[in-house]
Design goal:
Blueprint lengths: L7 H10 L4 H5 L12 H13 L4 E6 L12 E7 L2 H10 L4 E4 L12 E7 L7 H14 E9 L8 E7 L5 E7 L3 H7 L4 E5 L3 E5 L1
Parallel strand pairs: 1-2, 1-4, 2-3, 4-5
Antiparallel strand pairs: 5-9, 6-7, 8-9
Bound molecules: S-adenosylmethionine.
């Protein structure tokens, strides 16, 4: 069992889940029965926030299926470690460059982007890895925009989940949630672009 926040087992997990991943966003498939009051309306608001970011040379780190990436404007590069996520994102994002690779560290040069965007990736990084990722993101891009799970009163701020993959192997995934103030604090300050029941977005 491994304990790196985003290790190869976690990526295998996302790889397996890629074809159904958007069910989480859409409240379909295995998420159809979830009790998530206001979820769909807030996803729409989140999309508006992403669409409202000024066009820029932007890197989406851990883009997944590209569900939010497609709303980024400008010259878009998207990175994910999972081959199946990249395949889905590339089909969905004909005008972006979608690349498969590890974000830790980012395989890009200093100052290559005006903005680093990342959604629901930061929360899988334990504190030391978050600090390292942030430093690296600031090396590669001027502005950092982070979309995350909002802290909910019914869930602990951080936890390790055990997951069992199709091959029976077990691994642990770290996950934390943030208030807008927590997240801004971690990023060393920033503007709250959205704070709702389900999501927070900080530009720093
Ligand atoms: C929870 S999903 C978020 C996907 C997308 N950003 C979204 O909001 O829908 C996390 C993504 O991080 C990717 N990932 C995990 N660890 C990674 C790493 N070290 N480098 C690059 N991508 C990684 C996974 O493959 C997965 O697509």
């Amino acid at each position: 069992m491994t304990e790196r926040g985003t290790d190869e087992r976690m990526c295998a997990d996302f790889d397996q889940r890629a074809p159904d991943y958007d069910d989480w966003w859409l409240g379909s498939g295995s998420f159809a029965g979830r009790d998530r009051p206001g979820w769909s309306a807030e996803v729409e608001r989140l999309i508006d926030v992403v669409r409202g970011l000024p066009p820029a040379r932007v890197l989406d780190v851990a883009c997944g299926t590209g569900f939010l990436t497609r709303h980024l404007r400008g010259e878009v590069v998207a990175l994910d470690q999972s081959a199946r996520m990249v395949e889905i994102a590339a089909a969905r994002l004909p005008h972006a460059r979608v690349v498969q690779g590890d974000a830790l560290p980012l395989p890009f040069s200093d100052g290559e982007f005006e903005r680093i965007f990342t959604s629901h990736f930061f929360h899988h990084l334990p504190p030391g890895e978050r600090a390292a990722f942030m430093a690296d993101a600031r090396r590669v891009g001027r502005e950092l925009v982070v979309v995350e799970d909002a802290r909910r009163p019914d869930a602990p701020a951080e936890q390790w989940h055990e997951r069992v993959l199709g091959d029976g192997s077990r691994h642990r995934i770290y996950r934390r949630s943030f208030t807008a103030a927590d997240l801004a604090d971690e990023l060393g300050g920033g503007e709250v672009l959205h704070e709702g029941r389900w999501f927070v977005v900080i530009a720093s």
